[in-house]
Structure formats: C-alpha cells, structure tokens
C-alpha cells in the first residue's frame, strides 16, 4: 500500500495522516527537539530568576504584565485554530524569539557580567529557537502549508533595544523575564501542536 504526502490544509485534526518515511522522521525529530527545548526553557527561566535578585524570585512577587510589539504569548483561542494555522503561528513566534533572547543576553552581560552560565544559556536558547523554527518551517513546507516567505525581520526583533529608549535596570530585568517566559510558552505550544502530527502517537 503506497503512502502519499498529503496537504495539511486538507487534513482534519482527528484523522490519521499518512507520511512519506523521510517526512515522518523529520516530524518526529522536530517534535523531539521541541520536547527537549521545553525542558531547557524551564531551566532557563529558573536560572534567570535566580540571577536577578529581589524582588524576582520572592514568593509573593507578581511581575506586571508587559507587551512586546510583534510577539505575545499563545492566546487561549490558539487551541481552537486549524492545526496548520497553529503551526504557522508557532513558526512565526520562533522566528521572532532569537533576536529577543539575544537582546536579553546583551542586557544581562551588563547587569550580571559574573553570571557566565546564564549568558551561555541565553545564547543557547536563541540558537535552539532558530533551529526549531527552521525545522518547523521545513515540516510545514513539506506538508504544503509553508509558514512564511523571507522578508523583513519581525517587528519584535528590535523591541528590547528601542522601546522607551534605554530601559532602566528593573525594566530590563522585567523584559528579560517576560522574554524567557514567552520562549517557554512557545516551545511548549510547538511541542503540543507537533504531537498531533507524530504518526502513531507521541514517541
């Protein structure tokens, strides 16, 4: 029985999809990467908080909500979208995150120069987000649901360095906390969305 690489646009979330062997392997590989990065993102957030001092990390600390142009957390409505659209949103977020993480690393290099482990973790996170985003776009293209073509950098890429001029120490730390949180939210959401494509269920 032959297998055919179908379009994700025509598939239903609750219907099994047949993949070519190489595509099945790519989907599994990308899902496994997302699962690994979900764990790494939790460690990054914990490490980030530990390096910021009070009031970060205090039991009663509730950071104010902030917004970043071009990137927000996954909305509750995300879960109700078609799988192809969810994966496009995942890819777009992963495309914006590396520059934000790089900006956080630059701020932390000034604020916490004696925290080399955190700086390496932020550098790794940016590189890993790029890798996951590229892998996800490859999967989308193979499924006939390409995420987005090449173009200008997402608006979020310069947000940290341009918003309100040079941020104060607390604002810079707060922005970094928010970016690290967004990184975790989006890699976790990507893992969950990809799990619906893994043939035979989650490995």
From TrEMBL:
<keyword id="KW-0202">Cytokine</keyword>
<protein>
    <submittedName>
        <fullName>Cardiotrophin-1 isoform X1</fullName>
    </submittedName>
</protein>
<dbReference type="InterPro" id="IPR009079">
    <property type="entry name" value="4_helix_cytokine-like_core"/>
</dbReference>
<dbReference type="InterPro" id="IPR010681">
    <property type="entry name" value="PRF/CT"/>
</dbReference>
<keyword id="KW-0964">Secreted</keyword>
<comment type="similarity">
    <text>Belongs to the IL-6 superfamily.</text>
</comment>
């Amino acid at each position: 029985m032959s297998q055919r690489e179908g379009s994700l646009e025509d598939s239903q979330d609750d219907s099994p999809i047949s993949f070519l062997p190489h595509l099945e392997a790519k989907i599994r590989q990308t899902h496994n990467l997302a699962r690994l990065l979900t764990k790494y993102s939790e460690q990054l957030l914990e490490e980030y908080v530990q390096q910021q001092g009070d009031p970060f990390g205090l039991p009663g600390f509730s950071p104010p909500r902030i917004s970043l142009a071009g990137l927000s957390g996954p909305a509750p409505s995300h879960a109700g979208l078609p799988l192809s659209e969810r994966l496009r949103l995942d890819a777009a977020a992963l495309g914006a995150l590396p520059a934000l993480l790089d900006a956080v690393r630059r701020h932390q290099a000034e604020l916490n120069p004696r925290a080399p482990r955190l700086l390496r973790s932020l550098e790794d996170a940016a590189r890993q987000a790029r890798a996951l985003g590229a892998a996800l776009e490859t999967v989308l293209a193979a499924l006939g649901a390409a995420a987005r073509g090449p173009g200008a950098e997402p608006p979020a890429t310069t947000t940290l360095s341009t918003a309100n001029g040079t941020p104060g120490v607390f604002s810079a730390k707060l922005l970094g906390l928010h970016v690290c949180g967004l990184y975790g939210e989006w890699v976790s959401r990507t893992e969950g969305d990809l799990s619906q494509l893994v043939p035979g269920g989650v490995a």
